[in-house]
Design brief:
The protein has 11 helices and 18 strands. The chain is an alpha/beta fold.
C-alpha cells in the first residue's frame, strides 16, 4: 500500500458566501499548503484573505489562477461570471471545481467542455446535494439494484422569498428553476444513470416576483421530464413562500419509484425546530432573522462548533481528497452539468411557450 499525497495550492475565485465556505474549508484541509483568494471587489478578497490566512488576496482572478503555487482552482463567482475564470484555469491545465450552474447558456457550457477536453483537465461542478448523506445512500440503493428498474419519481423544493430575492439581486437571470431546481434535476439524472432525458414539459405561475420587477420569474414551476426508456419524473419548485417562513434554505420531498422498491426522502426539516425571541440569523440573507426556524434547512450546511457540517463541507473535502490522494469522488462532471443545464433551459422554454420541448435542444441556447 502506498501513501502518496499530492500537496495542493488552491485558488478560490469569488469571495462571496460560497467562496467564503470553500476558502475556510480549504484552509482547514491537511493537503493544502497554499491558498489564494480573489474577487472583483478587491476589498472583499482582502477581508476574506485575512480571515482565512491566505498567502495571496487579489482583485485580479488571473493573478491567483496563474500563480505558480496554485495547482487547483475553485470558481465561486456569481452565476454569470463562471466562464472566464474557468477557461483561464483549464488553459493552464489546473483542475477546477465550479459552482452550479456550470454556465448560463449551452454555448458557454460547450466552450468549457471543449477546453477541458482539449487540455485534458478534470472539471467538476458543485451539485452539493449529492453529498447529503440521505441522497448518496439512495444512489447506493439504486446502484445495488434494490429498486429494480426506475419507472418514475416526484419531488418538490420550497423556500422563502427572502432568499430568492438575494439570488435575484445578484443575478436577475438566475431563476429558481435555473439556480435551485437544477440541484434536483442533477440528482434525478444521477439516479437515472445513463438514461437520458428526452422531453420536458413545464407550467409556471407568478405574482410575487413579477410584481417586484422580475418579469421572467415564476413563483411556482411544475415540470414533467420524460427519459429515454419512458421513466417520468415530476419536479417542482416554489421559492416565494412568505419571507419569515421557517425554512432557512430548502425544504424538500423526493420520492423515487422502481419496479421492486421505493425511496422516500422527507427533507422538510420540520423535525428540528428552534423558536427564539432573539431571532435566528439567516446564513444567506443579511439583516434577516427568523423567530422560528427549521434547524438544518440551510442548504449548504452549517458552521457549528468551529467546523462545517453538511454537504458543502463534505463535497469540498471530497474534491480536495480526490485531488490529493486520487481516491474517487462523486461530484458532477462537466457532461452531467451540461445535461442538467439543458433540462432547466428546456423547462423555462416550455413554461414560456406552453409546448413540450424535445431534447437535445438545437442551436442558440
Ligand atoms: N453549493 C452551494 O451550496 C451554493 C449555494 C448558493 C449559491 N451557490 C452558487 O455559488 C455561486 C456564488 O453564489 P454566492 O451565494 O456565493 O454569491 P455571492 O453574491 O455571495 O458571491 C459572489 C461573489 O462573486 C464576486 N464576483 C462577481 N463577478 C466576479 C468576477 N468576474 N470576478 C471575481 N469575482 C466576481 C462577487 O463580487 C461576489 O463576492 C453561484 O454560482 C451560486 O449559484 C452554490
Amino acid at each position: 500500500m502506498r501513501f502518496d499525497r499530492k500537496e495542493l495550492g488552491v485558488a478560490v475565485v469569488g469571495a462571496g458566501r460560497i467562496g467564503t465556505h470553500r476558502s475556510r474549508l480549504a484552509a482547514q484541509h491537511p493537503a493544502v499548503r497554499f491558498l489564494a483568494v480573489s474577487d472583483i471587489d478587491a476589498d472583499r478578497a482582502r477581508a476574506l484573505g485575512e480571515r482565512v490566512g491566505a498567502q495571496v488576496a487579489s482583485g485580479s482572478n488571473e493573478e491567483i489562477i496563474s500563480h505558480p503555487d496554485v495547482n487547483v482552482v475553485v470558481v465561486s463567482t456569481s452565476e454569470f461570471a463562471h466562464v472566464e475564470p474557468v477557461l483561464q484555469a483549464l488553459e493552464l491545465g489546473k483542475p477546477v471545481l465550479v459552482e452550479k450552474p456550470i454556465a448560463m447558456s449551452l454555448e458557454d457550457a460547450d466552450r468549457i467542455m471543449a477546453s477541458a477536453e482539449k487540455n485534458k483537465v478534470d472539471l467538476r461542478v458543485g451539485y452539493i446535494m449529492r453529498y447529503k448523506r440521505r441522497y448518496f445512500l439512495g444512489k447506493e440503493q439504486i446502484e445495488e439494484g434494490r429498486l429494480g428498474r426506475l419507472v418514475g419519481a416526484t419531488g418538490r423544493v420550497f423556500n422563502s422569498r427572502a432568499q430568492a430575492f438575494e439570488i435575484l439581486k445578484r443575478s436577475a437571470d438566475a431563476t429558481p428553476v435555473l439556480d435551485v431546481l437544477t440541484y434536483y434535476v442533477d440528482m434525478m439524472c444521477w439516479f437515472m444513470g445513463g438514461n437520458r432525458p428526452v422531453e420536458v414539459f413545464c407550467r409556471g405561475n407568478g405574482i410575487v416576483f413579477k410584481e417586484a420587477g422580475y418579469p421572467k420569474v415564476d413563483d411556482v414551476s411544475w415540470a414533467i421530464i420524460t427519459f429515454a426508456d419512458g421513466a417520468v419524473v415530476n419536479l417542482g419548485i416554489c421559492y416565494s413562500l412568505p419571507a419569515k417562513y421557517p425554512t432557512a434554505g430548502q425544504s424538500v420531498r423526493l420520492e423515487v419509484i422502481g419496479t421492486d422498491g421505493v425511496l422516500m426522502f422527507d427533507e422538510d426539516h420540520k423535525e428540528n425546530i428552534l423558536y427564539t425571541e432573539k431571532g435566528y440569523p439567516h446564513a444567506y440573507v443579511p439583516d434577516h432573522s427568523l423567530p422560528m426556524v427549521f434547524l438544518g434547512s440551510t442548504s449548504s450546511g452549517d458552521w457549528a462548533l468551529d467546523n462545517m457540517y453538511g454537504p458543502i463541507g463534505d463535497e469540498t473535502r471530497g474534491w480536495l481528497d480526490y485531488l490529493s490522494t486520487g481516491r474517487p469522488c462523486h461530484l458532477a462532471t462537466a457532461e452531467d452539468a451540461r445535461q442538467t443545464l439543458e433540462v432547466t433551459i428546456a423547462m423555462e422554454e416550455s413554461a414560456r411557450t406552453g409546448d413540450a420541448v424535445k431534447l437535445p435542444l438545437g442551436e442558440g441556447h
